[in-house]
Amino acid sequence: MKYLGYMFRAVVFYGSILFILGLTACQRSRVKTNLDALLTDLTEQEGLQQCVVYVQKGGEVLYYDASGYRDTSRTVLCQRDDIFRLASQTKAVTVVGLMMLYEQGLFSIDDPIAKYIPAFREDITIRHLLTHTSGICIDPPFDSIALRLGVVTHKTNECVTLEQNVGRMALLPLKHAPGQEFTYANNTDVLGRLIEILSGEDYVQYIHDHLLEPLDMSDTYFYLPKEKAARLVEIEKDFRIDMPPVVDYTLHSYPSPSAGLVGTIGDYAHFLSMILAGGIYKGKRFLKEETLTLMQHNEVGNKRRENIGFGFAWDVFYNPLPPFNSSCMRWGGMYGTDYLIDPQNDMIIITYNNHPTSRPIRNNYKQRIIDTVYRSLNLY
């Protein structure tokens, strides 16, 4: 009888494993079938130049593939390890780097930034910078003032240091009193300079040594090596968010902590996996769980927009509409990249393309990709 009991438990155990493996294979098949069809439609019928999508659930990669073309002439097929302009996806990397210093007790969230960079107003705190409520603004009419002061608002071919640019930003008039409104701007540049002051290290070197290298993000750069430049997806020559229109990312120019990174979707998946795993990647702890909880708290109430608040690096959701839930975190970049972290469903969805957001594809392709994943997994 004892032997039969052992056999029964073994059958149940291994049967459960086979069931889970079969379920994962079934999920992977549904996600692949539905996403393949959608991406083909987006790139062949609806004008999207290229798209790479990565889906991970329960630690398993359910989808990782590319569609479309790397170049604007549509002659070179897009590959899943192509390099994309990450723009504002850089912000989360900078903020995680800063919060690692927070865990060392080197600053307090409500410290005035003037304690470390005296050129700024005393009433602007680090919390205001983390939540884009400082009042710093580079949109009209402040863009002309920023230009006059020599503030670099994005990637540039000019050789400007982080210290120089942040010093110029301190001279900008504020759009509103700190904490009064949510005004999205290059607050994260100031936080990048704070990393330098607190750590005593160059910002780019700090990010490389403490995040990119230990997270195996070997294809993510502020300064793209020339031998990898051919893998950077091509963008329309008249897309003028870059000033000048075509930026050479191989130059050692301004390393914007808000928007300066280029990289692959696979690399960024490592970064997001660390966040999803409560701050751990391959057994190494980068952040404590309580620090991530602090970063995920809605700090701006309803100042952001209905149903969507903001933590320290990304959108968070209150009264969320399906398929989102209150655990979700989402952000992206102006060139078309997007990511979603869903701890409740133990899932990551990343969408990469560099189609200018000033030329939107109809029917919101990012949301369509997210919806397709959730529906394929019967989560929506």
Any overview of this molecule?
By secondary structure, the chain is of the alpha+beta class. 34% of the residues lie in helices and 12% in strands. The strands form three sheets. The chain has a seven-stranded antiparallel sheet with strand order 2-1-11-10-9-8-7, sandwiched between helices. A hairpin with a 2-residue loop joins strand 1 and strand 2. Helix 2 packs parallel to helix 6. The chain is globular, with a radius of gyration of 22 Å. 42% of the residues are buried.
Topology, please?
Blueprint: H1 2-44, E1 50-57, E2 60-68, E3 84-85, H2 90-102, H3 126-130, H4 142-149, H5 162-169, H6 187-199, H7 203-212, E4 262-263, H8 265-276, E5 280-281, E6 284-285, H9 289-295, E7 308-310, E8 315-317, E9 329-332, E10 338-342, E11 347-352, H10 365-376
Antiparallel strand pairs: 1-2, 1-11, 3-4, 5-6, 7-8, 8-9, 9-10, 10-11
Helix pairs in contact: 1-10, 2-6, 5-6
Unreliable sequence segments: 15-21
Q: Mean pLDDT score, rounded?
A: 91
Largest sheet descriptor? 7 strands, antiparallel
Radius of gyration equals 22 Å
Question: Distance between the terminal alpha carbons, to the nearest Å?
Answer: 46 Å
Order of helices and strands: HEEEHHHHHHEHEEHEEEEEH
Number of strands: 11
Described by the principal axes of the CA atoms, the overall outline is globular
User: In percent, how much strand structure appears in the residues?
Assistant: 5-15%
**Alpha plus pi helix count:** 10
